[in-house]
Inverse folding.
């Protein structure tokens, strides 16, 4: 079996009980079947998901190589960051690599609540930033190509 | 210090298994009687390609737990390792050892998190084998394996068998996206961020390129695992194997003697010094 199973999404785990309850109230459960397309590159980015179980692959089309997997997300990860951008369109495509259960965040409601209640917005932003930094650091580590052949000592 | 530490003993290549294009696993059997010296997961031997030189290679399996049969996984990265990699079945190589400290799995009753990157899976393979042989001694066991690409994955059949087990959580992830690959893509730290960890009851064993171990250890520290419960396998220029020549010095440590497995509380301040 693979590591993971159903775990508390990391964004929720980073919040205290009250903020977790309030964010959870903005979510609704969704399920993606194996192979189901979740979003397509270039389409409007209007949603965000907290993955509970399963796995999702982010891909992009490379001429001559087809759809190339950039990263695999699992239970606990946040899927969908493009809505935070100045021009909210999906930068990549995503499909479920396995049956996946997730909590879909109502982004419009989240932004409205964060605007009206800066403290809530700040806490959620801090938590999202922490996850985003972890993803960025892991991606940078991958760029190092650490497992490439190196000289004998 | 026994003669097996100072004088190479002849070992015949009994079998070879090509793992990847540049990596082979060899089984070695002694050409003369050898003492019943235990060989522990995480320890290394000095393998001598006649006329070329010696190189430190960790044991990648311990079928008998002593010098009677040795298993090493050798990646061809230079003159000596290339010569060892190319040594055919029936030929004889020289062996000294075992050297250093292996992985510390005591006390039992704890969760284990094993993180291996690239050829770093080889020194951890025997520890996973010994854990599975005494599975009841541990709580949750998670193995995270990172590889450059699907063609660089070591011990593929064994990994598949581990993944099929209900009592072992295994994540295999590759760095470089490849068309047709249906497994996970990402760095090992992403798995570490995600897995369930009970920090007070976790022992972590890390082996791979040094930056990979540093990055992984930092995630574990962020998640509350004490540095004393994180073990890393370090590598420097191992030469004598007995703490005399000083080539493998890392600060106050001589890694052939005080390592290669060191806890991160000891290693971290030393790894922060670029000059070391």
């Amino acid at each position: 079996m693979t590591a993971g199973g159903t775990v508390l999404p990391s964004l929720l785990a980073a919040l205290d009980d009250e903020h977790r309850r309030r964010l959870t109230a903005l979510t609704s459960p969704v399920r993606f079947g194996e192979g189901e397309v979740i979003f397509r590159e270039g389409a409007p980015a209007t949603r965000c998901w907290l993955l509970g179980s399963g796995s999702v692959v982010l891909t992009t089309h490379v001429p001559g190589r087809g759809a190339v997997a950039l990263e695999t997300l699992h239970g606990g990860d946040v899927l969908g960051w493009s809505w935070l951008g100045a021009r909210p369109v999906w930068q990549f495509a995503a499909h479920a690599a396995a049956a996946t259960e997730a909590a879909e965040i109502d982004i419009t409601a989240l932004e409205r609540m964060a605007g009206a209640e800066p403290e809530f917005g700040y806490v959620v932003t801090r938590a999202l930033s922490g996850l985003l930094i972890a993803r960025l650091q892991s991606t940078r580590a991958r760029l190092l190509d650490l497992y490439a052949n190196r000289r004998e000592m | 210090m026994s003669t097996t530490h100072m004088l190479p003993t002849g070992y015949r290549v009994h079998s070879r298994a090509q793992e990847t294009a540049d990596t082979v696993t060899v089984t070695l059997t002694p050409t003369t009687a050898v003492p019943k010296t235990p060989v522990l997961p995480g320890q290394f031997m000095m393998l001598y390609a006649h006329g070329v030189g010696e190189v430190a290679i960790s044991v990648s399996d311990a079928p008998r737990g002593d010098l009677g049969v040795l298993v090493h996984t050798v990646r061809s990265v230079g003159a000596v390792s290339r010569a060892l990699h190319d040594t055919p079945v029936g030929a004889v190589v020289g062996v000294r050892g075992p050297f250093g400290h292996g992985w510390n799995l005591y006390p039992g009753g704890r969760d284990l998190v094993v993180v291996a990157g690239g050829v770093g899976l080889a020194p951890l393979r025997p520890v996973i084998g010994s854990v599975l042989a005494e599975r009841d001694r541990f709580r949750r066991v998670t193995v995270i394996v990172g590889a450059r690409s699907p063609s660089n994955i070591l011990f593929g059949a064994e990994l598949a068998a581990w993944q099929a087990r209900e009592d072992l959580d295994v994540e295999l992830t590759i760095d470089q996206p490849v068309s047709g690959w249906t497994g996970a893509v990402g760095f090992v730290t992403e798995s570490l961020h995600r897995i369930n960890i009970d920090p007070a009851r976790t022992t972590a064993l890390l082996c791979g390129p040094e930056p990979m171990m540093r990055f992984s250890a930092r995630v574990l520290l962020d998640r509350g695992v004490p540095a004393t419960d994180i073990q890393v396998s370090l590598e420097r220029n191992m030469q004598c194997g007995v703490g005399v020549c000083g080539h493998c010095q890392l600060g106050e440590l001589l890694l052939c003697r005080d390592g290669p497995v060191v806890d991160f509380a000891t290693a971290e301040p030393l790894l922060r010094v670029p000059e070391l």
Chain B touches chain A through 55 residues (CB under 8 Å). The CA atoms of residues 192 and 220 of chain B lie 7 Å apart. The radius of gyration of chain B is 18 Å.
